[in-house]
Design a protein that fits this description.
The protein is α/β, with parallel strands linked by helices and 432 residues long. The chain has helices at 3-6, 26-34, 67-72, 86-96, 110-113, 118-124, 149-156, 178-199, 211-216, 222-229, 268-280, 290-298, 311-330, 333-342, 353-356, 360-365, 407-413, 418-426, and strands at residues 16-20, 38-43, 77-80, 101-104, 129-134, 205-210, 250-252, 258-260, 348-349, 368-373, 378-383. The strands form 3 sheets. Strands 3-2-1-4-5-6 form a 6-stranded parallel beta sheet, sandwiched between helices. Strands 7-8-9 form a 3-stranded antiparallel beta sheet, with helices on one face. A two-stranded antiparallel ribbon has the order 10-11. Helix 2 links the parallel strand 1 (16-20) and strand 2.
Protein backbone atom coordinates (compact mmCIF):
# COMPACT_ATOMS: atom_id res chain seq x y z
CA UNK A 1 0.00 0.00 0.00
CA UNK A 2 1.39 3.40 -0.92
CA UNK A 3 2.00 6.02 1.75
CA UNK A 4 -0.74 8.18 0.24
CA UNK A 5 -3.27 5.34 0.37
CA UNK A 6 -2.20 4.33 3.86
CA UNK A 7 -2.59 7.90 5.17
CA UNK A 8 -5.43 9.55 3.24
CA UNK A 9 -6.05 13.24 3.90
CA UNK A 10 -8.10 13.99 6.98
CA UNK A 11 -11.56 15.49 6.75
CA UNK A 12 -10.27 18.84 8.04
CA UNK A 13 -7.13 19.07 5.92
CA UNK A 14 -6.58 22.69 4.93
CA UNK A 15 -8.18 24.07 8.11
CA UNK A 16 -5.77 25.93 10.36
CA UNK A 17 -6.38 26.29 14.09
CA UNK A 18 -4.51 28.44 16.60
CA UNK A 19 -5.02 27.07 20.10
CA UNK A 20 -3.86 28.88 23.22
CA UNK A 21 -2.73 26.06 25.51
CA UNK A 22 -5.14 25.44 28.38
CA UNK A 23 -6.47 22.31 30.04
CA UNK A 24 -10.04 23.43 29.35
CA UNK A 25 -9.44 23.64 25.59
CA UNK A 26 -6.83 20.98 24.77
CA UNK A 27 -9.34 18.23 23.92
CA UNK A 28 -11.07 20.46 21.35
CA UNK A 29 -7.75 21.03 19.63
CA UNK A 30 -6.96 17.31 19.72
CA UNK A 31 -10.27 16.37 18.11
CA UNK A 32 -9.62 18.79 15.25
CA UNK A 33 -5.95 17.85 14.86
CA UNK A 34 -6.57 14.12 14.71
CA UNK A 35 -9.18 14.78 12.01
CA UNK A 36 -6.54 16.45 9.87
CA UNK A 37 -6.60 20.15 10.82
CA UNK A 38 -3.29 21.99 11.18
CA UNK A 39 -3.51 22.83 14.88
CA UNK A 40 -0.78 25.07 16.28
CA UNK A 41 -0.81 25.09 20.07
CA UNK A 42 0.69 28.24 21.59
CA UNK A 43 2.43 27.88 24.97
CA UNK A 44 4.21 30.44 27.16
CA UNK A 45 8.03 30.27 26.96
CA UNK A 46 8.15 28.24 30.20
CA UNK A 47 5.65 25.74 28.80
CA UNK A 48 2.04 24.87 29.56
CA UNK A 49 1.29 24.00 33.17
CA UNK A 50 -0.21 20.72 31.93
CA UNK A 51 3.29 19.52 31.09
CA UNK A 52 3.69 19.12 34.85
CA UNK A 53 0.62 16.88 35.19
CA UNK A 54 1.31 13.26 36.10
CA UNK A 55 1.59 10.44 35.26
CA UNK A 56 4.94 10.56 33.49
CA UNK A 57 6.27 7.91 31.16
CA UNK A 58 8.37 5.37 33.05
CA UNK A 59 7.49 7.34 36.25
CA UNK A 60 10.23 9.87 35.50
CA UNK A 61 8.89 13.38 36.26
CA UNK A 62 9.79 15.67 33.38
CA UNK A 63 7.77 18.28 31.45
CA UNK A 64 8.64 16.40 28.27
CA UNK A 65 7.35 13.08 29.64
CA UNK A 66 3.83 13.99 30.82
CA UNK A 67 1.32 11.47 29.53
CA UNK A 68 -1.39 14.10 30.08
CA UNK A 69 0.32 16.50 27.71
CA UNK A 70 1.05 13.74 25.21
CA UNK A 71 -2.53 12.48 25.10
CA UNK A 72 -4.23 15.86 24.65
CA UNK A 73 -1.82 17.30 22.10
CA UNK A 74 -1.42 14.57 19.50
CA UNK A 75 -1.12 15.65 15.85
CA UNK A 76 -0.49 19.30 16.81
CA UNK A 77 2.43 21.54 16.09
CA UNK A 78 3.74 23.59 18.97
CA UNK A 79 5.15 27.09 19.35
CA UNK A 80 6.08 29.00 22.49
CA UNK A 81 5.35 32.72 22.65
CA UNK A 82 5.29 35.39 25.32
CA UNK A 83 1.85 36.87 24.71
CA UNK A 84 2.51 39.41 27.42
CA UNK A 85 5.09 41.16 25.25
CA UNK A 86 4.36 43.48 22.33
CA UNK A 87 6.52 41.40 19.99
CA UNK A 88 4.79 38.19 21.13
CA UNK A 89 1.34 39.64 20.51
CA UNK A 90 2.41 40.90 17.10
CA UNK A 91 3.68 37.46 16.16
CA UNK A 92 0.48 35.86 17.46
CA UNK A 93 -1.61 38.20 15.30
CA UNK A 94 0.45 37.22 12.27
CA UNK A 95 -0.40 33.61 13.05
CA UNK A 96 -4.08 34.49 13.43
CA UNK A 97 -4.07 36.11 9.98
CA UNK A 98 -3.38 32.64 8.51
CA UNK A 99 -6.02 30.79 10.56
CA UNK A 100 -9.61 29.67 10.26
CA UNK A 101 -10.17 29.06 13.99
CA UNK A 102 -8.81 30.34 17.27
CA UNK A 103 -9.57 28.34 20.42
CA UNK A 104 -8.95 29.86 23.83
CA UNK A 105 -10.04 29.11 27.39
CA UNK A 106 -8.58 32.02 29.30
CA UNK A 107 -10.48 33.45 32.26
CA UNK A 108 -13.00 36.15 31.26
CA UNK A 109 -11.21 39.44 30.71
CA UNK A 110 -7.75 37.96 30.15
CA UNK A 111 -7.86 38.14 26.33
CA UNK A 112 -8.98 41.78 26.49
CA UNK A 113 -6.06 42.54 28.84
CA UNK A 114 -3.71 41.10 26.23
CA UNK A 115 -5.40 43.12 23.45
CA UNK A 116 -6.10 39.77 21.78
CA UNK A 117 -9.86 39.56 22.25
CA UNK A 118 -12.27 38.83 19.41
CA UNK A 119 -12.45 42.43 18.10
CA UNK A 120 -8.65 42.57 17.98
CA UNK A 121 -8.42 39.25 16.16
CA UNK A 122 -11.29 39.99 13.78
CA UNK A 123 -9.59 43.23 12.79
CA UNK A 124 -6.71 41.10 11.49
CA UNK A 125 -8.87 38.31 9.99
CA UNK A 126 -12.51 39.40 9.48
CA UNK A 127 -13.77 35.91 8.64
CA UNK A 128 -12.06 34.32 11.67
CA UNK A 129 -14.06 32.01 13.93
CA UNK A 130 -13.12 32.19 17.61
CA UNK A 131 -14.28 29.79 20.32
CA UNK A 132 -13.94 30.97 23.93
CA UNK A 133 -14.41 28.20 26.49
CA UNK A 134 -15.02 29.55 29.99
CA UNK A 135 -16.59 28.12 33.17
CA UNK A 136 -19.85 30.09 32.95
CA UNK A 137 -19.68 31.89 29.61
CA UNK A 138 -18.40 35.33 28.70
CA UNK A 139 -21.58 37.10 29.89
CA UNK A 140 -21.65 35.41 33.28
CA UNK A 141 -22.55 37.18 36.48
CA UNK A 142 -19.67 35.21 38.00
CA UNK A 143 -16.70 36.37 35.91
CA UNK A 144 -14.14 35.53 38.59
CA UNK A 145 -15.62 32.18 39.64
CA UNK A 146 -13.04 29.41 39.62
CA UNK A 147 -13.84 26.01 38.16
CA UNK A 148 -12.35 22.54 37.94
CA UNK A 149 -13.58 19.54 36.02
CA UNK A 150 -15.26 18.34 39.24
CA UNK A 151 -17.08 21.60 39.92
CA UNK A 152 -18.27 21.78 36.30
CA UNK A 153 -19.78 18.30 36.56
CA UNK A 154 -21.23 18.94 40.01
CA UNK A 155 -22.64 22.40 39.36
CA UNK A 156 -23.86 21.54 35.88
CA UNK A 157 -25.76 18.49 37.10
CA UNK A 158 -24.23 15.26 35.75
CA UNK A 159 -22.80 14.25 39.15
CA UNK A 160 -26.31 14.21 40.64
CA UNK A 161 -27.22 11.39 38.25
CA UNK A 162 -24.09 9.28 38.81
CA UNK A 163 -23.75 6.82 41.66
CA UNK A 164 -25.47 3.96 43.42
CA UNK A 165 -28.92 2.92 44.65
CA UNK A 166 -27.61 3.38 48.17
CA UNK A 167 -27.91 7.14 48.57
CA UNK A 168 -25.91 7.14 51.79
CA UNK A 169 -22.97 6.87 49.38
CA UNK A 170 -22.08 10.26 47.86
CA UNK A 171 -22.53 10.84 44.12
CA UNK A 172 -19.76 9.60 41.86
CA UNK A 173 -17.90 11.93 39.53
CA UNK A 174 -17.41 10.64 36.01
CA UNK A 175 -13.68 10.18 35.45
CA UNK A 176 -11.41 11.18 32.61
CA UNK A 177 -12.06 14.91 32.44
CA UNK A 178 -15.69 14.60 31.34
CA UNK A 179 -16.60 18.18 32.26
CA UNK A 180 -13.83 19.63 30.12
CA UNK A 181 -14.49 17.09 27.38
CA UNK A 182 -18.18 17.93 27.19
CA UNK A 183 -17.46 21.62 26.72
CA UNK A 184 -14.82 20.82 24.10
CA UNK A 185 -17.26 18.68 22.13
CA UNK A 186 -19.73 21.55 22.03
CA UNK A 187 -16.93 23.89 20.98
CA UNK A 188 -15.93 21.59 18.10
CA UNK A 189 -19.53 21.14 16.93
CA UNK A 190 -20.01 24.92 17.03
CA UNK A 191 -16.76 25.61 15.20
CA UNK A 192 -17.59 23.20 12.39
CA UNK A 193 -21.11 24.61 12.08
CA UNK A 194 -19.70 28.13 11.94
CA UNK A 195 -17.23 26.98 9.27
CA UNK A 196 -20.05 25.66 7.10
CA UNK A 197 -21.90 28.94 7.58
CA UNK A 198 -18.84 31.01 6.68
CA UNK A 199 -18.00 28.90 3.64
CA UNK A 200 -21.59 29.23 2.42
CA UNK A 201 -21.19 33.00 2.28
CA UNK A 202 -21.60 33.94 5.91
CA UNK A 203 -19.23 35.74 8.23
CA UNK A 204 -16.78 34.82 10.93
CA UNK A 205 -18.08 34.87 14.48
CA UNK A 206 -17.29 34.58 18.17
CA UNK A 207 -18.56 31.42 19.88
CA UNK A 208 -19.17 31.74 23.63
CA UNK A 209 -18.98 28.23 25.13
CA UNK A 210 -20.14 27.90 28.73
CA UNK A 211 -18.78 24.78 30.40
CA UNK A 212 -21.56 24.94 32.98
CA UNK A 213 -24.28 25.14 30.30
CA UNK A 214 -22.65 22.33 28.27
CA UNK A 215 -22.71 20.07 31.33
CA UNK A 216 -26.27 21.04 32.19
CA UNK A 217 -27.71 20.16 28.78
CA UNK A 218 -25.85 16.83 28.98
CA UNK A 219 -27.71 15.60 32.06
CA UNK A 220 -29.84 13.18 30.03
CA UNK A 221 -33.27 13.30 31.73
CA UNK A 222 -32.42 15.29 34.86
CA UNK A 223 -32.88 18.84 33.59
CA UNK A 224 -35.81 17.82 31.39
CA UNK A 225 -37.70 16.08 34.21
CA UNK A 226 -37.15 19.06 36.50
CA UNK A 227 -38.17 21.62 33.89
CA UNK A 228 -41.24 19.81 32.57
CA UNK A 229 -42.53 17.84 35.54
CA UNK A 230 -40.78 19.50 38.49
CA UNK A 231 -39.44 16.04 39.37
CA UNK A 232 -35.98 15.04 40.58
CA UNK A 233 -34.21 12.02 39.13
CA UNK A 234 -32.44 9.65 41.53
CA UNK A 235 -29.11 7.88 41.15
CA UNK A 236 -29.36 4.19 40.30
CA UNK A 237 -26.52 1.70 40.05
CA UNK A 238 -25.33 1.22 36.49
CA UNK A 239 -28.49 2.56 34.85
CA UNK A 240 -30.28 5.75 33.93
CA UNK A 241 -31.11 8.16 36.72
CA UNK A 242 -34.90 8.31 36.86
CA UNK A 243 -37.61 9.80 39.03
CA UNK A 244 -38.87 6.24 39.56
CA UNK A 245 -36.89 3.18 40.61
CA UNK A 246 -36.04 0.80 37.78
CA UNK A 247 -34.83 -2.80 37.76
CA UNK A 248 -31.13 -3.52 38.43
CA UNK A 249 -29.08 -4.40 35.35
CA UNK A 250 -25.62 -5.39 36.65
CA UNK A 251 -24.78 -9.05 37.21
CA UNK A 252 -21.69 -10.98 38.21
CA UNK A 253 -20.71 -13.64 35.68
CA UNK A 254 -19.06 -16.99 36.30
CA UNK A 255 -15.56 -15.54 35.81
CA UNK A 256 -16.14 -12.93 38.51
CA UNK A 257 -16.52 -10.00 36.12
CA UNK A 258 -19.59 -7.82 36.14
CA UNK A 259 -21.67 -7.01 33.09
CA UNK A 260 -24.41 -4.52 32.41
CA UNK A 261 -27.31 -6.41 30.89
CA UNK A 262 -28.62 -3.23 29.34
CA UNK A 263 -32.05 -2.91 27.76
CA UNK A 264 -34.33 -5.95 27.40
CA UNK A 265 -35.35 -7.12 23.93
CA UNK A 266 -37.66 -4.70 22.14
CA UNK A 267 -38.78 -6.54 19.00
CA UNK A 268 -40.34 -9.96 18.35
CA UNK A 269 -37.17 -11.01 16.53
CA UNK A 270 -35.04 -10.14 19.56
CA UNK A 271 -37.33 -12.15 21.84
CA UNK A 272 -37.03 -15.12 19.49
CA UNK A 273 -33.25 -14.81 19.50
CA UNK A 274 -33.09 -14.53 23.28
CA UNK A 275 -35.27 -17.61 23.69
CA UNK A 276 -33.02 -19.52 21.28
CA UNK A 277 -29.93 -18.46 23.26
CA UNK A 278 -31.55 -19.66 26.47
CA UNK A 279 -32.35 -23.03 24.87
CA UNK A 280 -28.85 -23.42 23.39
CA UNK A 281 -27.35 -22.92 26.87
CA UNK A 282 -29.71 -25.49 28.38
CA UNK A 283 -31.16 -22.85 30.72
CA UNK A 284 -34.79 -22.86 29.63
CA UNK A 285 -35.90 -25.25 32.42
CA UNK A 286 -34.54 -22.78 34.99
CA UNK A 287 -36.81 -19.99 33.74
CA UNK A 288 -40.53 -20.79 33.94
CA UNK A 289 -41.21 -17.34 32.45
CA UNK A 290 -39.57 -18.47 29.17
CA UNK A 291 -43.05 -19.03 27.81
CA UNK A 292 -43.43 -15.24 27.69
CA UNK A 293 -40.29 -15.00 25.53
CA UNK A 294 -42.02 -17.24 23.03
CA UNK A 295 -45.14 -15.14 23.26
CA UNK A 296 -43.11 -11.99 22.61
CA UNK A 297 -41.67 -13.62 19.49
CA UNK A 298 -45.21 -14.26 18.19
CA UNK A 299 -46.49 -10.70 18.44
CA UNK A 300 -46.32 -8.21 15.56
CA UNK A 301 -44.93 -5.54 17.88
CA UNK A 302 -44.36 -4.88 21.57
CA UNK A 303 -45.58 -1.54 22.87
CA UNK A 304 -43.35 -0.55 25.78
CA UNK A 305 -45.75 2.25 26.64
CA UNK A 306 -48.12 -0.43 27.93
CA UNK A 307 -45.75 -1.70 30.62
CA UNK A 308 -47.64 -1.65 33.90
CA UNK A 309 -50.98 -1.32 32.07
CA UNK A 310 -51.14 -4.46 29.93
CA UNK A 311 -50.41 -7.66 31.90
CA UNK A 312 -49.11 -9.57 28.88
CA UNK A 313 -46.70 -6.85 27.74
CA UNK A 314 -45.50 -6.39 31.32
CA UNK A 315 -44.85 -10.14 31.67
CA UNK A 316 -43.04 -10.33 28.32
CA UNK A 317 -40.67 -7.46 29.17
CA UNK A 318 -40.03 -8.84 32.66
CA UNK A 319 -39.24 -12.26 31.17
CA UNK A 320 -36.69 -10.64 28.85
CA UNK A 321 -34.89 -9.07 31.80
CA UNK A 322 -34.98 -12.29 33.82
CA UNK A 323 -33.60 -14.28 30.90
CA UNK A 324 -30.68 -11.89 30.46
CA UNK A 325 -29.85 -12.03 34.15
CA UNK A 326 -30.01 -15.82 34.23
CA UNK A 327 -27.69 -16.08 31.23
CA UNK A 328 -25.25 -13.55 32.75
CA UNK A 329 -25.20 -15.58 35.97
CA UNK A 330 -24.35 -18.73 34.01
CA UNK A 331 -21.52 -17.86 31.59
CA UNK A 332 -18.29 -15.78 31.47
CA UNK A 333 -18.63 -12.04 30.92
CA UNK A 334 -17.11 -11.92 27.44
CA UNK A 335 -19.33 -14.76 26.24
CA UNK A 336 -22.32 -12.83 27.53
CA UNK A 337 -21.19 -9.66 25.74
CA UNK A 338 -20.63 -11.46 22.42
CA UNK A 339 -23.92 -13.36 22.66
CA UNK A 340 -25.89 -10.20 23.36
CA UNK A 341 -24.15 -8.33 20.54
CA UNK A 342 -25.03 -11.08 18.06
CA UNK A 343 -28.69 -10.66 18.96
CA UNK A 344 -28.47 -6.88 18.60
CA UNK A 345 -28.96 -6.34 22.34
CA UNK A 346 -27.21 -3.58 24.25
CA UNK A 347 -24.81 -5.02 26.82
CA UNK A 348 -21.31 -4.39 28.09
CA UNK A 349 -18.54 -5.64 30.32
CA UNK A 350 -17.48 -3.48 33.26
CA UNK A 351 -13.75 -3.07 32.71
CA UNK A 352 -11.01 -1.35 34.62
CA UNK A 353 -9.50 1.33 32.32
CA UNK A 354 -6.32 -0.64 31.71
CA UNK A 355 -8.35 -3.68 30.60
CA UNK A 356 -10.05 -1.86 27.73
CA UNK A 357 -6.98 -1.99 25.48
CA UNK A 358 -6.84 -5.79 25.79
CA UNK A 359 -10.43 -6.38 24.76
CA UNK A 360 -10.64 -8.12 21.34
CA UNK A 361 -13.64 -5.97 20.40
CA UNK A 362 -11.66 -2.74 20.92
CA UNK A 363 -8.59 -4.19 19.25
CA UNK A 364 -10.54 -5.22 16.14
CA UNK A 365 -11.99 -1.73 15.99
CA UNK A 366 -8.45 -0.35 16.02
CA UNK A 367 -8.88 1.62 19.23
CA UNK A 368 -5.35 0.94 20.60
CA UNK A 369 -3.09 3.13 18.46
CA UNK A 370 0.69 2.94 18.32
CA UNK A 371 2.46 6.32 18.28
CA UNK A 372 6.16 6.57 17.58
CA UNK A 373 8.38 8.36 20.10
CA UNK A 374 11.80 8.63 18.43
CA UNK A 375 13.27 10.27 21.54
CA UNK A 376 12.45 7.08 23.47
CA UNK A 377 13.40 4.71 20.69
CA UNK A 378 10.01 3.02 20.91
CA UNK A 379 6.31 3.46 20.30
CA UNK A 380 3.61 3.84 22.96
CA UNK A 381 0.00 2.71 22.85
CA UNK A 382 -2.54 5.54 22.85
CA UNK A 383 -6.34 5.57 22.98
CA UNK A 384 -7.58 5.80 19.42
CA UNK A 385 -10.46 7.56 17.70
CA UNK A 386 -13.35 8.53 20.00
CA UNK A 387 -15.55 8.20 16.92
CA UNK A 388 -15.00 6.93 13.40
CA UNK A 389 -16.64 7.92 10.12
CA UNK A 390 -16.44 5.95 6.89
CA UNK A 391 -15.69 9.00 4.74
CA UNK A 392 -13.65 10.99 7.28
CA UNK A 393 -10.25 9.41 7.98
CA UNK A 394 -8.90 9.80 11.49
CA UNK A 395 -5.36 9.26 12.65
CA UNK A 396 -2.74 10.48 15.09
CA UNK A 397 -0.24 11.98 12.68
CA UNK A 398 2.48 12.77 15.24
CA UNK A 399 3.28 12.70 18.93
CA UNK A 400 2.60 15.84 20.98
CA UNK A 401 5.12 18.62 20.35
CA UNK A 402 8.07 19.23 22.58
CA UNK A 403 8.27 22.74 24.01
CA UNK A 404 8.90 25.17 21.17
CA UNK A 405 9.51 22.29 18.75
CA UNK A 406 7.99 24.06 15.74
CA UNK A 407 8.94 27.64 16.55
CA UNK A 408 11.31 28.12 13.64
CA UNK A 409 9.19 26.08 11.21
CA UNK A 410 5.99 28.02 11.91
CA UNK A 411 7.59 31.46 12.16
CA UNK A 412 9.42 30.91 8.87
CA UNK A 413 6.06 30.08 7.30
CA UNK A 414 5.08 33.64 8.24
CA UNK A 415 8.00 34.95 6.24
CA UNK A 416 10.43 35.60 9.10
CA UNK A 417 14.11 35.97 8.29
CA UNK A 418 17.10 34.59 10.21
CA UNK A 419 17.73 38.00 11.75
CA UNK A 420 14.09 38.32 12.87
CA UNK A 421 14.22 34.89 14.48
CA UNK A 422 17.42 35.84 16.30
CA UNK A 423 15.83 39.09 17.49
CA UNK A 424 12.79 37.22 18.81
CA UNK A 425 15.03 34.86 20.74
CA UNK A 426 17.08 37.71 22.12
CA UNK A 427 13.94 39.48 23.32
CA UNK A 428 12.68 36.32 25.03
CA UNK A 429 9.55 36.21 22.84
CA UNK A 430 10.47 32.64 21.94
CA UNK A 431 12.93 30.46 23.88
CA UNK A 432 16.54 30.64 22.82
Amino acid sequence: MSGEAANPPGALEGVRVIEIAHERACFAGKLLADMGADVIVVEPPAGSVTRQYEPFVDDQPDPERSLYWWHYNTSKRGVSLDLGSEAGRELFLRLVATADFVIEAEDPGRMAELALDYPDLAAVKPDLIVASITPYGRQTALPDAQATDLTVLAGGGPVWSCGYDDHTIPPVRGGGGQGFHTACHYAVLSLLTALLYRDAGGEGQHLDVSMHAAANVTTEMASYVWTVAQGTVQRQTGRHAMDIETMPVQRRCTDGRYVTTGMPPRTPGEYAGLHGWLVDLGLEPKLPEAVFLQRGAELERIDFALIGQDDEVTAIVAAGREALMLIADSIPAYDFFIGAERLGLTAGIIYAPEEVMEDPHFQDRGFPTEVEHPELGRSLTYPGAPYRFEKSPWRISRRAPRLGQHNEEVIRELGATDSELEALRGAGVIPA
